[in-house]
Design goal:
Length: 332
Amino acid sequence: MNIPEHREHVRELLKHAARAQDAEAPLKSLAQEGQQDDIRALQVFGMVKVDDVSDDMTVTLEGRMFAGLLIGDVPDFGPGKLAEMRGSITETELAARYLESKVAGVEKVMKEEPNMRDQLQWIGRILKNTADEFRQQMHVPAMMIEGKVIPYNDDNETGVKHAANLLLFFSDVGERNVRAGWWSELETGEPKKRNVGELLMLMVTEIVEAYDAWRDHAPDDKLPQHPGFGVEMGDLLIRAGDLCGAAIRGDLVGPSDDPKANPGEKLFRKVRKIAHRYEAIRKTPEAVGPPETADFLPVMDIAAMVDDKLAFNAHRPDHKIEARLAEDGKRT
């Protein structure tokens, strides 16, 4: 059998299998005497699929196209039109218009084959949506580095807006701490001007406590149902929320040239120097450490831990004003 004859033989096999499939009595691949090699080849090229359990043979869209079973095939633009368009529009717009030409072809077939209207409408909708996505450049990554795709490198926008939820968080945490007296003079109850360097240093202490808990794999000492690392990161978020809440209220003060600087700010200046040193090496090979070899930690619901810690703080004795006025009471 020569090549054209064999091609026609394969097409007839596909047509026979497709008709059986459409009649809901699919052929069994092993039952096709003398055609097992052809069936295996068609599987390799994705023209048929054979169920491992039932041995049912189904013809794919690709197989139906090869067999000439798809009526009303949608026409292409044609080389002349493509050549005319290439010089004046972007590649993404060209691709979008190409797909829209397919939509026009689908609409033409809908008129000729009204019994296929429902199916063709879905095809047209998919093509139109895909054309719109091409226009937004959602079909290609922004760049490649060393042969690897870097998806959406120029724009990582997700469309999610956080302002409302963050405003609620900042305002609530700030209000809690105002009620608890952290923004008042303990002795008089008058509003207190707090040093921003000190507030930032308090965040550093939370980061260090999170680091210690991470190193020790320890549960939290106050909320033992949670890992210490997660709770300390929650504390960091609460500290940040308190600072942002003060900024929203207008309770932050600017820097001062007073030589008697706040003790917390004095320590934070040392942290600042370390941070500047690290910032200087971030873009150098010196910043890259050895590969991590430890196992991943269990999943942590830190958002829930923040709520639990806020609830704990609302009633803890050492946060009461009378306890903080004691000689060993918390001042910040």
